[in-house]
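Build the 3D complex.
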Amino acid sequence: MSPVVLAAAEAAPFHDVLAAPAGSPASLAWLIPVVPALSAGFLLLFGRRLGAVAAWIAVAAMAVSAGLATWVFAFLQSQPDEGRVFVHTVATWLEAGDLRVDWEVLVDPLSTAMMLLVTWVGLLIHVYSVGYMHGDERYERFFAYLNLFAASMLVLVLGSSFLTLFVGWELVGLCSYLLIGFWFERRDYATAAKKAFVVNRIGDVGFLIAMFVIFGAFGSLTFADVLSEPAGMIGAGTAAAICLLLFVGAAGKSAQIPLYVWLPDAMAGPTPVSALIHAATMVTAGVYLLARTSPLWATVPEIGLIVAYVGAITALVAAIIACAQNDIKKILAYSTVSQLGYMFIGVGVGDQVAGVFHLLTHGFFKALLFLAAGSVMHALANRTNVWEMGGLLRVMPVTAITSAVGVLAISGVPFLSGFFSKEEILVSALDTPGAFPIWLIGGLAAGLTAFYMTRWFVLVFLGAPRWAQIEPALHPHESPVTMTLPLVVLAAASAFGGLLNPNPDGPLHHWLEPSVLRFAGDEAFIDHTLAAGIIIAAGLLGIAFAAFAYTRRWTQPAPAIGLSGAAQRAFWVDTFYEWSVMRPGLFIARAFEAFDRRGIDGLVNSLGRGTTGLGSVTRRLQTGFVRSYALAVLVGAVLVTAMLLGTGLVR
Amino acid sequence: MVVPAGYYLLLAAGLFTIGLVGLMVRRSIIVMFMCVELMLNSVNLTLVAFSRIHGQLDGQVLSFFVMAVAAAEVTVGLALIVNLFRLKASTDADAIDRLRS
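Done.
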């Protein structure tokens, strides 16, 4: 029972790879990551002396990058449909035996779509940070890291082989570590950064092994060699192994079960960083990787189904946890995990366009929601507990109204961006044989999403101003224009982002066709209109229920008992990992440490002690008395004379 | 009257023994130093005596070398003794035991 695989001949990715014409935008695309990277290097070296100017240098670098990306996009659009995949070799990176890796940029519709998201949303977040980070003691370093983060993600997106993609992959891991632990003076923040790094490493190992297998099977790591006709070159077993290993990597980076635990803690970083990680850079990388490798997945759709199930379960579990969280950013963090689950459903069942579409729309509204959360925290002296907020609609109307747009978009209210993308993912799941339970789970999670996001909005912006009772001296006010402007732009994108692909055959689908290979089924299991109606109803029900419950009934925090208590503690997953992985690991590490200290060091030290001991015995021969030396000489001379006489050498 | 060469050897052996015993038992570095000189010169006497016995000049030439070396040794040795005395305010050889610890 495998989904219908479309004939490979029909617009298969990487069949027609063109060399970028010299001087064309596609041949200059390598500048897109290089400009922010140079800016990051400059700011790290000289930023201290620049003060506030540093921020605007970073913003300018991102603006140049965004402009270039748009230019490349316009160029691709001017090309004929079938000639939109360009590869440009910038330089040879390394050469060893048969292996030669060029620094190549891949400019195709998928990478361009990602580039536009990363640069434009990144630019908005940079602008927002100018206001948000104002007064931080490491202001310029923050912007250097932000630049580096965006540059890394652009390297990842523009990589034309698994290896160059991996370089960006590791760089975003590094940048996330630097930025999550940006306020490393606080021990728990530093721990969160370490956690993100270590969990990502687990995924990276999967990706690395996948690359070994790919190189063993194909003898090359470039997308053009691996993805143009994978079915003819490897067996199903190898393809399944590669796909599963790639999924391990993607699950680490994109926070899927069981490797999602780092993302909720990643909000330790400054809020713009959360927005960047959750929307534009970092977590989208896994989805991008799976969409990019779609020809491989098309050969083993059953593995894709596994991915889709993992995504569905992640979507549901994270949504349940999000319903019980009380931290303004943690709710959003679990929401991201949940929405990433949807994206994995999309790429898993074989509708990469829907997955990438949701990636883009989610990028808009999640960046919006995080930046709004940052704006709220800014106004309330960095309070994060939603039960200490409330009534902020009147105080900060721009933040509140833009947030409302984001909430409605993520809840799947018709005609906002999230509605279209979620709908298309679920329709594809519905049409793929064996994926009907995924549709059910996805629908349930959609209802829960609407519930927890409405709860978030009601507790933060509506009701009584609870902060006034806790700290009467607090006078919240609307954020400066550098912060509200990005909110407004992102709100517009969240509202109208759906126009990218208002139906499954929309412009985005057409645009991405040369890059991805769809393998989702298309036999309608239930009538699509009915299915869409059910999902919309679930969303509206969630909104209505939360709006009613949190304005009328549950105006106090729920006691941490039963299901709500379990969800509040995130189902003890962290505790489980602590006891099953961290403590045994710590035990082994301590055992090895003891062996090193007592065993190996002990051996070396006892050798040293033995030499010292021997020395302290033999040094007694050296009395320091001149006369005893003279006696020794005499005795020696007598002995030598006696020997000479004894042997008869001297008569 | 001609003294037989063997007596010179006996005298030299006696002088050497006096020098050696003096080096062993005395504690003043100056006296020890003089004993060393005594031993050197007793060897010189032996060399000259053997030179006479064998009718060759080699031994006498060698004794000049010994004298030259002894002169150099006196220069260095006396300088050392003067400095040691400044350091320790004593000429006791057993007091000069810095190598012990």
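The longest strand of chain A covers residues 86-96.
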